[in-house]
């Protein structure tokens, strides 16, 4: 996918409050203000963009996506169940070494299913690449505005110490970005994977405005395998 795919990452930042979670536990007031902003300014743009995509797809592709949403939900439920099982094992007193061994054994089959799922999306993503790019353009145009507003909302609730920590986090991200450019092949591959996963999340979205907690869980369970499309 082209660079416009990156906008979905900005949306996930707005919904999940990833930035604030590095500095402090988010308050109810922050959640309410952030969600109100998302509901008023972000969600309508994302919904309109998604509706436009669906309207331009063939009936066959729309049916395909409906089935894939069912499969994605099943994977989500399987992951959720697996995590509950792992939580129970930790609480039973299993050692870290035992947990690592159990985790590797139990999650391996699920990882393979997720890889297979992403592979099954590749033909759809490739033949509709231009449509997806066009549909996501309005979100790309608003990305910086949303980011600035999100940070302004969070800043209202931060102490001087927390603001300093936030600035440190920003500098560290910039440094990581520079290192990524110095290692073009590896950094380029990671960016390509993020674009691919962001595009898949967008087309498989059910159009429902999820709570921040639900959105975070959905992002967490994204596949480790990306759809790789040409980037120009």
Descriptive account of the structure:
- There is one protein chain.
- This protein is an all-alpha fold.
- The protein folds into two domains: 3-57 and 133-220, no CATH class; 70-127, no CATH class.
- It has helices at 7-16, 18-21, 28-56, 59-91, 96-127, 129-155, 160-182, 184-204, 212-220.
- It starts with 6 loop residues before the first helix and ends in a 12-residue tail after the last helix.
- The model is unreliable at 1-23 and 219-232 (pLDDT under 50).
List the helices and strands and how they pair.
Elements: H1 7-16, H2 18-21, H3 28-56, H4 59-91, H5 96-127, H6 129-155, H7 160-182, H8 184-204, H9 212-220
Mean pLDDT: 78
Count of runs of 4 or more consecutive helical residues: 9
SSE-based structural type: mainly alpha
* Most strands sheet: none
How many discrete domains? 2
Strand content: under 5%
Question: What form results from the Cα inertia axes?
Answer: globular
The Rg value, from CA coordinates, equals 19 Å
Relative helix content: over 70%
Distance between the termini: 9 Å
SSE pattern, N- to C-terminal: HHHHHHHHH
